[in-house]
Amino acid sequence: MSFPYSTEKQVALTAVRRACALTSSVFNKLVRNETLTKDDKSPVTVGDYSAQAVVNTVLSRAFPADPIVGEEDANELRQKSGEALKHRIVELANEALTADLGIGEMAEWGLGPGQERTPEELMDAIDHGSDPGGPLGRRWTLDPIDGTKGFLRGEQYAVCLALMVDGEVVLGVIGCPNLPVNNAEPDGQKGCIFVAVKGQGAEQTALSGANPTPLTIPAVTPGTLNFLESVEAAHSDLEFNNRVSELLNITRAPKRMDSQAKYCCLARGDGSVYLRMPTRAGYKEKIWDHAPGFVLVRECGGIITDSRGQPLDFGLGRTLGENYGVIAAGKDVHADVLAAVQKAQAEEKEKSKA
Ligand SMILES: Nc1ncnc2c1ncn2[C@@H]1O[C@H](COP(=O)(O)O)[C@@H](O)[C@H]1OP(=O)(O)O
Ligand SMILES: [Mg+2]
Ligand SMILES: [Mg+2]
Ligand SMILES: [Mg+2]
After folding, report:
1. Where does this protein hold Mg(2+) (predicted)?
2. Domain tally for the chain?
3. Is 285 in the pocket of ligand 1 (CB under 6 A)?
4. Which atom of ligand 1 is nearest to the CA of 148?
5. Which of left, alpha, beta for 167 (phi over 0: left; psi -120 to 50: alpha)?
6. Relative to the CA of 44, which ligand 1 atom is closest?
7. What span, in angstroms and rounded, lies between the C-alpha atoms of 228 and 48?
8. Looking at residue 306, which CATH number applies to its domain?
9. Is the sign of the CA dihedral 104, 65, 148, 241 positive or negative?
10. Is 258 in the pocket of ligand 1 (CB under 6 A)?
11. Residue 319 gets which letter from DSSP?
12. Is 52 in the pocket of ligand 1 (CB under 6 A)?
């Protein structure tokens, strides 16, 4: 008997593994003119574009009817960039797609020797991520490089893919090429992939290997609580985290890292609370920045809500809509963090009145 979503899990793992191999090799060869600045001033590299082309190609071959909500689109590439940049993206994507088939990989997913795509097919594959999202039906959401700033610094980033059915996240895969396989050995082997399927639990595997390890968020011993938070001060309100930390009498320093690697670290107990509050009114979190992390945390026994304790709603479109902030933690910790967040918010409100 096969479990629900077993084919989807295999396809998603394959696509994310191939994209991780691509981004790792791109990092070592990245040159200055291979990064563009998007209209929102955030960076995007040949790695982001080619990883989206690879994952979308695999998904649209394996599941032709499924729409994809992907972070990137090829507009700027088609309009602003020169032929050299486009050529590089095509070369990288084709290298990743045509590598020899590994265990569990199928040629009918568009993979293996001889499966090169034309530049136009790959630009179209990138644009296949333009679905607007919504409450009904099946759809994937993809962040080809989450934490592009971490990627550019040679630090943490993640390739993030999730499947949603009727607005509910049922499968999440997060590939972290720079994350140590074992937190206790920071200089040891790096590169891991995390997968969670709704109702079936979660596991971690080394990117290079087999033998998945099941994951559960460990219970927190008093006095050992610590936060997981962004590196970039523009991405989340680190001052606010500091105040919440004081209210909870936390003495351990926060663990700062880019991307959904934070959810992975929470899932295996490298940190105890992921708190992310917006730095400016009006910022709406994107579904691809949280969907795989959401199902991972839930399947590891954790709780994830917004700052008002409301569930995250993935069925509203490309963003989390009215959700404000994100709190993810083990089930023995979440209620205390939520209370402290609300107290810190009340203090801020008082201060702004004074
Ligand atoms: N102004 C912003 N506020 C919040 N998140 C942002 C902002 N600009 C970019 N991001 C996204 O925040 C996430 C990174 O958060 P963190 O700093 O915690 O890793 C990324 O998804 C990043 O996009 P991207 O996927 O392009 O890197
Ligand atoms: Mg980006
Ligand atoms: Mg991204
Ligand atoms: Mg992102």
Report:
1. 71, 143, 145-146, 289
2. 1
3. no
4. 27
5. left
6. 26
7. 24
8. 3.40.190.80
9. negative
10. yes
11. B
12. no
pLDDT given for residue 35 in this prediction: 84
Atom of ligand 1 nearest to the CA of 231: 17
Mean pLDDT for all residues in the chain: 95
In a domain, 131, yes or no: no
CA distances from 263 to 22, 172, 293 (A): 22, 11, 5
Does residue 57 form part of some domain? no
Question: Which residue has a Cα nearest atom 27 of ligand 1?
Answer: 147
For residue 62, count other CB atoms closer than 10 A to its CB.
20
Q: What is the pLDDT of residue 29?
A: 81
Measured distance CA(148)–CA(154) in Å, rounded: 10
Tell me if 243 is assigned to some domain.
yes
- The whole domain housing 307 covers 227-352
Tokens found for residue 296: 């991972």
Residue to probe by mutation, ligand 1, list 235, 240, 323, most atoms within 8 Å of CB:
235
**How many CB atoms are closer than 10 A to CB 298?**
18
Instruction: Extract the residue ranges of the chain whose pLDDT is less than 50.
Output: none
* Rounded Cα–Cα distance for residues 16 and 55 (Å): 7
Which residues are catalytically annotated? 48, 148
pTM above 0.90, yes or no: yes
Per-residue pLDDT, 37:
86
| Residue 310 neighbours by CB distance under 10 Å | 11
Q: How far apart are the first and last CA of the chain?
A: 64
Determine which helix (DSSP H) or strand (DSSP E) holds 45, and give its type and residue range: strand 43-45
- Residue 42 CB less than 6 A away from ligand 1: yes
Amino acid in the structure at residue 254? P
Predicted local distance difference test score (pLDDT) of residue 1:
59
What ipTM did this prediction achieve? Answer: 0.93
Q: Ligand 1, residues 23, 38, 40, 42: which to mutate, most atoms within 8 A of Cβ? A: 42
Q: Tell me, letter by letter, the H, E, C secondary structure of 207-266.
A: CCCCCCEECCCCCCCCCCCCEEECCCCCCCCHHHHHHHHHHCCCCCCCEECCCCHHHHHH
Q: What is the pLDDT of residue 218?
A: 96
